[in-house]
Amino acid sequence: MRLSLFLIFSFFSVTVFAQGNRSIQTLNAGWKFHKSNTSELQAVLREKEDWEQVNLPHCFNAEDGEDEKYGYYRGGAWYFKEISIDSSYQNQRVFMYFEAANQVCELFVNGVSAGKHIGGYTSFCFEITSLLKLGAKNVITVRVDNSHNENIPPLDADFSFMGGLYRDVYLITTNNVHFDLLNNGSNGVFIETPTVTEQTATVRLRATIKNDGKAKQKILQYTRITDAGGKMITTKSTAVTILPGQIYQTEQNGFSIPNPHLWSPDSPYLYTVTTEIRDSKGHLIDQISNPLGLRWYTFDANKGFILNGKPLKLIGVNRHQYYSHQGFALSNEQHVHDIELLKQMGGNCLRIAHYPHDPAILEACDRLGIIATEEIPIVNYINENSNDFRSNCLNMAVELVRRDYNHPSVFVWAYMNEMLNNNKPKKPENLRRLNKLAISIDSILHKEDKNRFTMIPNAEWFEGYRDAGLIDLPQICGWNIYEGWYGEKLSDFEQFMDTFHKKYPNKPVMITEYGAGADPRVRSFAPERFDFSMEYQNAYHEHYLKAIMERPYIAGAFAWAFVDFFAEPRVDATPHVNNKGLITLDRELKDSYFLYQAYLQKSPMVSIASKGWEQREGSAASMEEDFCKQPVTIYSNQQEIELFLQGKSLGKKTVVDNKAVFEVPFANGSNLLEAVCKIGSNVIKDVATIQFRLWDFPLNKHPESFPSIHVNAGSNYSYYDKKNHCTWMVDQPYSRGSWGYTSGKRYRAGSRPASQREISCTADEPLYQTQQIDPGSYRFDVPDGTYEVSLYFAELLSEAQMQKSLYNLTADATVDKAVKRIFNVDINGYPFLRNLNLKEQYGEAVAVPFKYIIDIRDSEGIEIKFSALAGVPVINALSVVRIK
Ligand code: GCB
């Protein structure tokens, strides 16, 4: 909806009334928004008549792709809002708290700057008291800018740096005497647990109190610790006299909790610490509540992670903060839902990657018992020569710790992800500068927090990280390992880790990333790396999980990633999305999610993992058969599974490494599968209904009922087109009575089975990213009738181009001059396409569909013949649909 400028200052005004002590409310509703690089407030108002009306959280890249260089808008944007402040605010302080804004944010109140914040992921607060007009309307204006800035990390990373006021914004009012809100996003109270044992726990508390009034104040700081049921456990009062304008640091020591209820993933028990300020008459004037979890832990180089005296294998995920069509702007419910899904998966840890997330995430981790690592977004490289870059990194480290200091779920502070993998040459002086910055960050993290561990996630180039000191410096070494995805062999994972452990026997280590891409539309009976099939992702995680579980020295492992996420330059099966999630951007669970559940869940579980593969197609193997056998994967933590098809047992299978595979004889139509495990006298089961389209053998066995065939040409995977409810089958060679190509070979991009180029004019990338090269002809021995024969083409990138980028983080748009192909296509002798030159007539990587209607008589079947005029012909997909 767009509103005229006239409405900007007269609409959606909220009136805020003073409350005496602290009040907190969101300022999320009724903002006017306009993208503009103009930095002058008055000038921007003259620029445009219409302003879009938005509510927060708002991300201005939720649906865009408009910038040539970055693919999405990176620049300035303005938000306006009007609030009326009641005159009762005479003796109150007023603040605006931003949970984050990416990445530079300046706040103006009635046209005057109230403050500027740098960094897109940490929280910040501005005081606006002196800029407000009491008893009147006030105009709040915010400029947010997500332009690339060489002084602000991250400079580069495999995720989109989306802009906007994408988290909640709050208006907070306080008494003149209040806990300090201007301390780097913190709430002004810091809690520590100097000792925790099974017998006793001690608690220490630091607070900063400010007197913004004109008179000296005698106050009492009163703290109480209550248990999860609200019962008082212990209290302390401290009398303080605070002069006007003064900031006072208090410390309350010696709280003691006998027989503490310990915090752990299985029992995330939370106490509450409530800290109050009371005036000399005993009236409450400010109050802050914090969660308190009592636990002790360490990371051991051989035994792994130890919590409350017992070893605990940490298995969980990395998470980014995206949702489809919303970009960065998720509701708190959506954030929390992700942590609930992690918990339901059985995961006990979360790497909050690669930057601090919404406060709702750690609140959920505290409550649900998820052990978190949290980091600042220094990714891939640093700006070595900039003091501003350095100080922005250090500020972010301070903001990270101060905001989240009190969360019992945070165990590790991390920084610097994969600093040496960006294909840039590294000289000793580069390594030295990197080391210097790392030392500064590590020491600031330890200065801010003496109790938690530090970690750096490295990758691949062992010697480089060693020489830069990034292995020795932090207390935990993280490794991001993608053997079997970017690297060729899965088993190189164990090899790398065992070698590392031998070289660094005293270094605690975690696998900070490992993962493989998968798109639920892509399914394969012969999975390969980079085919983006669910089956390859399953095989990858099956291998890694087993190897990780078998190695006690690996303290923890975080799958990359929990949820698919936007990464603008990337072209996976879904362009601009990194498809390595165990869950899609719409939160559809992929098969591998259930593998984790089978490994991690303590209660009995069985899952037909591929139940999402609910539309299948296939051929009967012979004239006598009226079924087609295809595998169905089941994950379970039980020993034996029995599978039923339409109520009839297909037999029992022993579960090996949490998995059993059944060859299921699917019949045409609806197939009900039930996977059943008996546990004593109890039964658990999972159910799936698979719609199967069976082609007879031969295809014309029942001429009256032949429907259609869709082929994903030159491909080892089938592709399900959700919009048209149609499955494009794995390609096959022709045999009499059936269908297929008569010759040719599959397109390959180097060692990869599909192009990773974005294909324009379609949303069905996986269909166009494979290709049969020089097919000779395709034959379909269909019964007589009238058919639509559709042919789908796209000129793909050459193999040489694909080799260029290790991680394929950048789509390579270079035109391959070597490709020259011109060809003809004849359908049953009819000259359907002549001199087809895809590149010249349509362009590279463009979807080009054609359709031809044909009558088939005298059992001639359909023959589609390709003949070369220059180069070799290609075909990406084809379908034969009977219309009469
Ligand atoms: C990595 C990076 C992460 C990428 C991931 C990938 O090593 O740390 O940011 O998204 O690999 O998918 O390539």
From TrEMBL:
<dbReference type="Pfam" id="PF16355">
    <property type="entry name" value="DUF4982"/>
</dbReference>
<dbReference type="InterPro" id="IPR006102">
    <property type="entry name" value="Ig-like_GH2"/>
</dbReference>
<dbReference type="Pfam" id="PF02836">
    <property type="entry name" value="Glyco_hydro_2_C"/>
</dbReference>
<dbReference type="Pfam" id="PF11721">
    <property type="entry name" value="Malectin"/>
</dbReference>
<dbReference type="InterPro" id="IPR008979">
    <property type="entry name" value="Galactose-bd-like_sf"/>
</dbReference>
<dbReference type="InterPro" id="IPR032311">
    <property type="entry name" value="DUF4982"/>
</dbReference>
<dbReference type="InterPro" id="IPR051913">
    <property type="entry name" value="GH2_Domain-Containing"/>
</dbReference>
<feature type="domain" description="Glycoside hydrolase family 2 immunoglobulin-like beta-sandwich">
    <location>
        <begin position="189"/>
        <end position="295"/>
    </location>
</feature>
<dbReference type="GO" id="GO:0004553">
    <property type="term" value="F:hydrolase activity, hydrolyzing O-glycosyl compounds"/>
</dbReference>
<protein>
    <recommendedName>
        <fullName>Beta-galactosidase</fullName>
    </recommendedName>
</protein>
<feature type="domain" description="Malectin">
    <location>
        <begin position="709"/>
        <end position="868"/>
    </location>
</feature>
<keyword id="KW-0378">Hydrolase</keyword>
<comment type="similarity">
    <text>Belongs to the glycosyl hydrolase 2 family.</text>
</comment>
<feature type="signal peptide">
    <location>
        <begin position="1"/>
        <end position="18"/>
    </location>
</feature>
<dbReference type="InterPro" id="IPR021720">
    <property type="entry name" value="Malectin_dom"/>
</dbReference>
<dbReference type="InterPro" id="IPR006101">
    <property type="entry name" value="Glyco_hydro_2"/>
</dbReference>
<dbReference type="Pfam" id="PF02837">
    <property type="entry name" value="Glyco_hydro_2_N"/>
</dbReference>
<dbReference type="InterPro" id="IPR006103">
    <property type="entry name" value="Glyco_hydro_2_cat"/>
</dbReference>
<dbReference type="Pfam" id="PF00703">
    <property type="entry name" value="Glyco_hydro_2"/>
</dbReference>
<dbReference type="InterPro" id="IPR013783">
    <property type="entry name" value="Ig-like_fold"/>
</dbReference>
<dbReference type="InterPro" id="IPR036156">
    <property type="entry name" value="Beta-gal/glucu_dom_sf"/>
</dbReference>
<keyword id="KW-0326">Glycosidase</keyword>
<dbReference type="GO" id="GO:0005975">
    <property type="term" value="P:carbohydrate metabolic process"/>
</dbReference>
<dbReference type="InterPro" id="IPR006104">
    <property type="entry name" value="Glyco_hydro_2_N"/>
</dbReference>
<dbReference type="InterPro" id="IPR017853">
    <property type="entry name" value="GH"/>
</dbReference>
<feature type="domain" description="DUF4982">
    <location>
        <begin position="630"/>
        <end position="677"/>
    </location>
</feature>
<keyword id="KW-0732">Signal</keyword>
<feature type="domain" description="Glycosyl hydrolases family 2 sugar binding">
    <location>
        <begin position="73"/>
        <end position="174"/>
    </location>
</feature>
<feature type="domain" description="Glycoside hydrolase family 2 catalytic">
    <location>
        <begin position="302"/>
        <end position="601"/>
    </location>
</feature>
